Amino acid sequence: MADVLAAEWLKIRTARYARYVLGVFAAFTALMPLLAWYFVTTWDSLTPAARAHAALGPLPEFLGWIASLCMAVFGALAITSEYSSGMIRTTFTAMPRRRTVFAAKGAIVAVVTFGVTSAALVATLVSGAIIVGGRPIADQTPLNPSGFALVAATAVAVTAFALIGLGLGAVTRSAVASVVGLTLLWYVVPLFSMHLPAPWAAWVSSLVPGALAGELAGAGNANSVFAAVLSPPEAFLVMLAYIAVPLAAGAIVISHRDA
Amino acid sequence: MRSAGGPATIEAMIEFRNLTKRYGRTLAVDSLSFAVRPGVVTGFLGPNGAGKSTTMRLALGLDAPTEGEALVAGCRYRDLQSPLRNVGALLDATAVDGARTAADHLGWQARSNRIPGVRARMLLEQVGLDEVARRPVGKFSLGMKQRLGIAAALLGDPPIVVLDEPVNGLDPDGVRWIRQLLRSLATEGRTVLVSSHLMSEMAITADRLVVIARGHLIADGTVDELAGQHGAAVNVRTPLEAELRSLLERAGARVVPEPNGRMSVTGLDAAAIGELAAREAIPLTELMRQPVSLEEAYMRLTADRSDFHARSTSERDDG
Predict the structure, then answer these.
(1) Which residues, including other chains, have CB under 8 Å from residue A211's CB and lie 6 or more apart?
(2) How far is A18 from chain B (nearest CA, A)?
(3) How many domains is chain A built from?
(4) Per-residue model confidence as pLDDT tens digits over A37-82
(5) Is B92 in CB contact (< 8 Å) with chain A?
């Protein structure tokens, strides 16, 4: 396993898709303090009456939403890029124990995603708080333990998204099919579920993966398309299921289908 | 020629036993049995779609056989402990991540099998890529990618080497380089299996030939044996064409009329034809054994199968 991990780590560090996806995410992360700074300079020039109507969404949550898609694509490409180039055959010739390879990919995708996402979210939280300063702007993620808890829960949820991507990639072997599936889960289902009749709307909107970070941190999902019916332990279990099902399906498919 | 395969050489052998692979309703490989031995270059020949690549994927454990088994170094590929130290393979030289450097492409493969990094650097030098080792593979020409693929195949210093169409798309220099390399690998006592759809190439490179068509084994022997068994035709000329023809065909020969009253006979040797003609008092004005090139032998071997191939529809094309 150590050899397979070392090989897969070198692969991920030198892969084209990793540069592109992480580059896009880095660009979005860099945009967050700029967004805060632009809002603050506008806010300062407003009359007190106008200020009451000006709103800046919580930036770490916004970035977490972007990270979910970026990292889900990252996870999917970690396997589909090898199928599309044909390199999967070189991989399985060098490392015939396919489930070990898949597990190593999962571990690396999880560690990279969690590391990159938490660093970006903490940077956004801290820089946002510094830029906003003492201004009474609503909806800001607080720079306190509950703020950091929400950031940590978001990073965990994004990691789950990345592993869902990896599982979908292993099952479909197609980057396009995986990204379509992920986009449905990330964007389309939540948009539809909020319009379902009660009590379905609240339940489905609490069970989609995007809702889980707020529930896991106990922060709720105010001002979003998501609901928060689940308690933190329930949210954690749902998250585990989201990871386990695609990964198990991927592990079965990868060891039984011809490469 | 079958005496070489004692127990001592099993470590370095590839063996197919009744190997069958079906994709849906298409039979890609049909009850294939043959062994590839060390110390010689074995050419694996067949028209496009004959099942060569499928057979190689089965040997490397990439595809699972429907029936039968493929053994490398005495066991199934998936059970090998350090596969790259046992078998080196080049299936598709263009299957690389274009952003990765040549050094990293070999690097991850070396790490996966605990092969020292110095070995990768040595091989890059050996295949002439040491100066571009830090450049992304996406900028490489096909010939450079083939060299990189060869370097990867030799990374673990394996006793068994499997190469799928390694000369495809190479310039004459590259072709000659691969030819010499295969030769020296065999001389070092390695088992070398190299596929091609070009008999002309294999006639120069290989010592033994395994020919398949439509998933069937149709020949397995030395280059000389194949040219002898399946190629040798006898040119015959006689004033009594119709009589001789029916006589020879009754004796089981295949007769193809040629211009100038000549006919080309296969399936009987010159002595047998002369004897038959003498017995029936048919005068022969010419009786000459025609040396047939390996290329023609191959065309004849695969001709019937190709006809069938052209007639059947909805075939999975798989080189």
Answers:
(1) A190, A205, A221, A226, A227, A228, A230, A235
(2) 10
(3) 1
(4) 999 999 999 998 888 888 888 999 999 999 999 999 999 999 999 9
(5) yes
